[in-house]
């Protein structure tokens, strides 16, 4: 990553800002899910979903979901 803001791309600057905001929010608010247990069914579903994504499958597009929910 570039060492000077002048030399940064827009994407690099956005990444730094996003990480900084996330870090500060976690610092202030804490992690609401810390210590929470994940039910076995959810864990298995996440593993299956991760495997599908790794295999190149994708879910519905944001536009499709927005239309279905009448948000678009």
Name a few traits of the molecule.
2 domains, about 60% helix, about 70 residues, about 0% strand, mainly alpha, 3 helices
Number of helices: 3
DSSP summary, beta strand count: 0
Query: Biggest β-sheet, characterized?
Result: none
Could you say which overall geometry the principal axes of the C-alpha atoms support?
extended
What is the total number of structural domains?
A: 2
Order of helices and strands: HHH
Distance between the termini: 37 Å
Beta-strand percentage?
under 5%
**Given the helix and strand composition, which structural class is it?**
mainly alpha
Describe, in plain words, how this protein is organized in 3D.
There is one protein chain. The protein has 2 domains: 1-34, no CATH class; 37-72, no CATH class. It is 58% helix and 0% strand. It has helices at residues 10-29, 40-54, 62-68. The longest helix is centred in the N-terminal third of the chain and has 20 residues, at 10-29. The radius of gyration is 18 Å and the shape is extended. The model has no long low-confidence stretch (mean pLDDT 87).
